[in-house]
Amino acid sequence: MTDPFSNLPDPSCGQPDHVLHRRKFLTGMAAAGAVSVASWAGLFSVPAFAEAAKKKAKHCILLWLCGAPSQFETWDPKPGRISGGPFRSIPTKLPGVHFGELMPRVAGIADRIAVVRAMKTNQSEHLQGINLLNRGAGPRPPFIRPALGSVLAQQLGQLDSPIPNFILLDPCPEGNEYKEFKAGNWAGWLGAQYGPVRVGGDYKIEDVRRLADLTADDQESRNALRRFFNRKYENERKSAAAASQNAVFERVKGLMSCAHLFDLDELPARDRERYGPAAFGLHALQARHLVENGAPFVMVSNGMPWDSHVFHNEIYQLLVPELDRVIHNLLTDLGERGLLDDTLVVMMGEFGRTPWMNHARGRDHYPNAWSLALAGCGIRPGVIVGETDADGVDVVGTAFDEKNLFATIFTALGIDPYAAYDLGDLPTFHRVEDHAEPIRAVLA
To answer: Is the pLDDT of residue 45 over 80?
Structure first.
């Protein structure tokens, strides 16, 4: 059997979209003037070349619905069943397909979305579930597998881009009760340079402007001296930790030049009104803006509001309409801007909610049968994959887990899911373990 990824370049060299066409390379070199081959920054400083590279790149936005949203009020309603609760279902743009009645806008663009109604995972607690669905495999101490955002930052990141390759937009960037994950080692063995830049709160990056009494030349001289000593230390000690630290310093330099992209005040008031007023919507707007300007991966988290152990129905009357508005606006805007074909949008939490209500009128954690949605790059629009039984207690037929999901995400973005990480003498790890199959029915 022919390996479908045999024609891809070495993973360390990036994706096919990042391989420079010879003619474009020479054109860019000519336009740049006396630019050495080693000076890629000069090439990317040519506006026409940089713009073309930015448009051709692939991106991913993860709408992370932290706390685990219920499938019954969103993607897999069960009207008339005791598990379905008081909410009805409504028809979508897809014949015979219904979503929860609290999602009328998304129902109207269902032909742009692929829904997987047959997720089945094995972690029912938040921290473990968050790690599983962000890393794509269970823990294997003492090794720390990189999160999805870190892998995509490595694979999709642009050369010399000042925009961070992994951006986490979070209403509480300092962390919440699951701060071990939020502040922990996201990048794992890939190194700190692929960890997230976490932003939230005031919708801008603070303290990144150069001091008024420090000239640009003086600042660059200081940075050059720091780079020299840090590199000397790294080479003499052969320290991977030092290499990661040096990369982080370079990222801070890039942030100083692109901080304006994180400032919501720079965006039209009408857009802020359409997405807002809550933090989740405004961060989704920021994600759209960052992707427009070349960000490879943006994760939009919304704290823990979906963890509805009490007063589930009342909470969801607020949460689901907001999600409906955000998804509709984001997918519509990306489509109108010509970005949806190159931007994969993933909409999920760490598991689903129980088919039954507890004594506090809430739904508890339920990984046995739940739903998620995908749209955009590499995804076949307008498909519903898998099903659950009449009450949503279990998956009927084939079930999919985190490994199938990660294989799907990597395949949609043109990344070999089964490539092994180069870890020297350490055990062998792959982007997707056990050669798990992607969810082929959702792939374009």
So the answer is: no
Peptide bond into 11 cis (omega under 30): no
Superfamily of domain 59-204+263-442: Alkaline Phosphatase, subunit A (3.40.720.10)
Segment among 36-45, 221-230, 245-254, 339-348 with least mean pLDDT: 36-45
The closest alpha carbon to 407, from 374, 381, 371, 365, belongs to 374
The share of the chain scoring above pLDDT 70, in percent, equals 76
Q: Omega into 268 within 30° of 0, i.e. cis?
A: no
Name the token pair of 106. Answer: 């998304």
Digit-coded pLDDT (tens) for 315-341 = 999 999 999 999 999 999 999 999 999
Q: In whole angstroms, give the CA distance from residue 274 to residue 279.
A: 12
Rg (CA), the chain: 22
Task: Provide the 10 A C-beta neighbour count for residue 141.
Answer: 5
Q: What is the pLDDT at residue 50? A: 54
Digit-coded pLDDT (tens) for 269-286: 999 999 989 999 999 999
Q: What are the domain boundaries of the chain? A: 59-204+263-442, 216-261
Cα separation of the two ends of the chain = 21
Q: What CA–CA distance (Å, rounded) separates 286 from 200?
A: 10
User: Does the pLDDT at position 15 exceed 50?
Assistant: no
Tokens of 238: 């052969």
How far, in Å, CA of 176 to CA of 201, rounded?
A: 13
Question: pTM for this structure?
Answer: 0.81
Across 5-9, 17-21, 44-48, 104-108, the highest mean pLDDT is recorded for 104-108
